[in-house]
Design brief:
heterodimer, A: mainly beta, 9 strands, 47% strand, B: mainly beta, seven-stranded mixed beta sheet, four-stranded antiparallel beta sheet, 11 strands, 54% strand
């Protein structure tokens, strides 16, 4: 499984876009990028995933660079409830082996 | 659906005692995962099952830890004997078979060994 690297913490003003980067320079062609988040004391929650193309759902957008060595999770209008630890995970589809790194602690400021 | 259900939510036990954590996955999900979370080591995958069969237990820290899945709707994680360093939050998660399935996590069991 590819190793992912994320900044330990970030701040974002409420209502602004939160851009969370992830480096996965060793990712293989068959490995997908998944994002989860963990709000204090709760279990991690799925956000979005992608392989090559950019993806968008009701929660966020995922921008993957053309060389797939990095990606950015975008929360378009951050709210106080988006304060959480965000995990970027790269894994081979079908292995179901979700390996979480240390994540980015996002704090949304009022 | 009630989601993944774990019990108990909190457990305090004395060193040397046996501890059993329980998990009910989402109905119809074929995969079940046990994770441990601590401040020092973050979220670690301990073991996961597919169709009740353990697939990868390489994350189980030592022989004191064991996990079973006797049927599709129930799994246990047992620690015997427990030690203070086992204190952590233990999460259970499940996912369905299928391409790019996401994992759904329970609320966790906070274990304190004194």
């Amino acid at each position: 499984d590819a190793k992912t690297t994320q900044p330990p913490s970030m701040d974002c003003a409420e209502g602004r876009a939160a851009n969370l980067p992830c480096n996965h320079s060793t990712i293989s062609g068959n490995e997908y990028v998944y994002w989860y988040r963990q709000i204090h004391s709760q279990g991690p929650q799925y956000i979005i995933h992608g392989l090559k193309n950019n993806e968008t759902n009701e929660m966020a957008s995922l921008i993957i660079t053309e060389d797939r060595k990095s990606s950015t999770l975008i929360l378009p209008h951050a709210t106080l409830r988006d304060t959480a630890v965000y995990y970027c995970i790269a894994f081979l589809s079908g292995t179901y082996k979700y390996i979480f790194g240390t994540g980015t602690r996002l704090k949304v400021l009022a | 659906d009630a989601g993944v259900i774990q019990s108990p939510r909190h457990e305090v036990t004395e060193m040397g005692q046996e501890v059993t954590l329980r998990c009910k996955p989402i109905s119809g999900h074929d995969y079940l995962f046990w994770y441990r979370q601590t401040m020092m080591r973050g979220l670690e995958l301990l073991i996961y099952f597919n169709n009740n069969v353990p697939i990868d237990d390489s994350g189980m820290p030592e022989d004191r830890f064991s996990a079973k899945m006797p049927n599709a709707s129930f799994s246990t994680l047992k620690i015997q004997p427990s030690e203070p360093r086992d204190s952590a939050v233990y999460f259970c998660a499940s996912s369905a078979t299928g391409f790019l399935a996401e994992a759904f996590f329970g609320q966790g069991t906070r274990l304190t060994v004194v």
